[in-house]
Write a structure and sequence with these properties.
Blueprint: H1 12-36, H2 40-56, H3 67-78, H4 82-88, E1 94-99, E2 105-111, E3 130-134, H5 154-160, E4 164-167, H6 194-213, E5 218-223, H7 225-236, E6 244-250, H8 262-270, H9 274-279, H10 288-294, H11 297-312, H12 321-327, H13 337-349, H14 359-363, E7 385-390, H15 398-403, E8 410-414, H16 421-424, H17 428-431, H18 433-443, H19 474-482
Parallel strand pairs: 3-4, 3-5, 5-6, 6-7, 7-8
Antiparallel strand pairs: 1-2, 2-4
Helix pairs in contact: 1-8, 3-12, 6-7, 11-12
């Protein structure tokens, strides 16, 4: 076949995926428009019908959950925002807004005091060490506090250990859908990628937090893309390294190998900008909240599980069924299609690079080229780095990552852990949180913390933290089998 744009680079299988994918998207848009015009009574009818079908076909567990567990799951599932999630466990939160240099208004959240305590002067310094948490792609700050047990929620543990905990939100998501220059319904509002997170969102949020708390430095904990944003920001802002005393990357992302679904992976790598054809140039997967509103939560959780298996080969065996039902309702938040295109560009080249605006470089593959997108100079990062990664995480190539990071990077392996397990797994309070506390104690110090012994003084440590897979409880297994 001739080497023509698009035509010469796609196989028959990729063309098939393109056609069927386009038809599905057209159908999905048509269905969404219909649902938007339906009265609430009709939407509730679909919800009750999906619940009835679920129960009729054996979806209910043989051993029903305990009343207390069901109550917690229901409260988390139906919590409308970050504040209601914190109130479930009796934590007082603060809301802040930071204006980026390019005009976006970002929502920040804060947990300044321990459980049951309130401050008379919110928005002021606590005198405590500051920790900043940042979410991943298609997420917001709620993913950190939607756990069914307070002891497994990293921010709650950090607060009890005497830290002043802050949460960031990317432009465009639920808490940051505002700009002084562009309307969120315009294409220009959504014209941002990882570059903009690195140049503006991360440094501007950190500067605001340090100004508010009067602290000289803070510790950064990023999950998935939240870690990639820090890698990028610290590499292009040398002065930011003086303000971040420690960077802990959970399920770190830099240059993933690709997706487990070969059709999707091949199609998007062959032409990353096809994402614009599928999803437009604004937000991606904007219809997800609509589907959540009309589908019974256990069914929605199962759909998410199936999608994660298909796309990433994640089976989520370390996350309980109750946790999935509670947390999946808070998993998705708006993100730009351009930021997802950026990730497919990175996957295609296997290089952690800035966004490639040149169409020809994405159309023609040549061994010699006069143009390459600029790499993020991640080897220049001075801030201490600790990586906590799952050895079953298809998005993490730890060896390739370590080659692109400075020699002082420390890597910790979590046996049997996948991507989302590091956030919501059954044993994060045994495997993940203690490692975070040890790293903070070593690099930051905190007289209130009781994290145990310091981390070993080693440049690159690769060691198992869990002895094997964690079995599901009988009732969870019954529920998963019935689904």
């Amino acid at each position: 076949m001739l080497n023509l744009p698009l035509i010469g680079r796609l196989s028959f299988r990729e063309y098939t995926a393109l056609v069927f994918g386009s038809l599905f998207l057209v159908f999905e848009i048509f269905l969404r428009l219909i649902v938007l015009g339906l009265p609430k009574q009709v939407i509730n009818f679909f919800y009750r019908s999906s619940r009835a079908l679920f129960i009729r076909h054996g979806g209910q567990p043989k051993v029903p959950p305990k009343p207390r567990d069901k109550k917690i799951v229901d409260r988390i599932l139906h919590a409308r925002d970050f504040g209601e999630l914190c109130e479930i466990f009796d934590y007082t939160y603060e809301e802040h807004v930071v204006l980026t240099k390019d005009g976006y208004l970002l929502g920040l959240h804060r947990l300044p005091s321990k459980r049951g305590q309130k401050r008379s002067r919110p928005g002021t310094s606590t005198g405590k060490p500051v920790v900043y948490l940042h979410h991943g792609l298609l997420m917001n700050s709620e993913v950190w506090v939607c756990l069914t047990d307070a002891e497994r929620a990293l921010p709650f543990v950090l607060v009890e250990q005497g830290y002043d905990v802050w949460f960031g939100n990317n432009r465009g998501n639920k808490y940051s859908k505002k700009s002084i220059h562009h309307n969120p319904n315009s294409t220009k509002f959504w014209d941002f990628s990882i570059d903009d997170f690195a140049w503006h969102d991360i440094p501007d949020s950190i500067n605001y937090i340090l100004e508010c708390t009067k602290a000289p430095t803070l510790s950064y904990i990023g999950f998935s893309q939240g870690s990639a944003q820090a890698f990028a920001a610290l590499s292009v802002h040398p002065q930011l390294n003086e303000k971040v005393n420690l960077f802990i990357a959970l399920a770190p992302a830099m240059s993933p190998a690709g997706l487990a679904a070969p059709i999707v992976d091949g199609l998007m790598k062959s032409s990353p900008t096809l994402m614009f054809l599928f999803f437009g140039r604004k937000s991606i997967l904007a219809s997800t909240p609509m589907w959540q509103s009309i589908i019974y939560p256990p069914i929605f959780a199962k759909l998410i599980d199936r999608s994660l298996i298909w796309l990433f080969n994640w089976h989520s065996l370390n996350i309980s069924t109750n946790q999935k039902i509670a947390a999946y309702a808070h998993l998705y938040s708006l993100a730009s299609t351009k930021s997802v295109v950026h990730w497919f560009q990175i996957m295609r080249t296997s290089v952690f690079q800035m966004y490639d605006d040149t169409v020809l470089s994405q159309v023609f593959r040549t061994s010699i080229s006069s143009y390459y997108p600029t790499r993020f100079p991640t080897r220049n990062i001075v801030t201490p780095i600790v990586l906590l990664y799952g050895d079953q995480d298809s998005l993490v190539d730890i060896d390739a990552m370590l080659k692109e990071l400075p020699p002082h990077t420390v890597a910790k392996r979590l046996r049997t852990y996948e991507h989302l397990d590091i956030l919501w797994g059954r044993n994060v309070h045994k495997d993940v949180i203690p490692e975070v506390l040890r790293a903070l104690k070593q690099h930051v110090g905190n007289k209130e913390s009781s994290a145990g012994p310091d981390l070993p003084n080693s440049r690159r440590v690769l060691e198992p933290l869990s002895e094997g897979p964690i079995p599901s409880s009988s009732e969870e297994k019954d529920l998963m089998d019935s689904l």
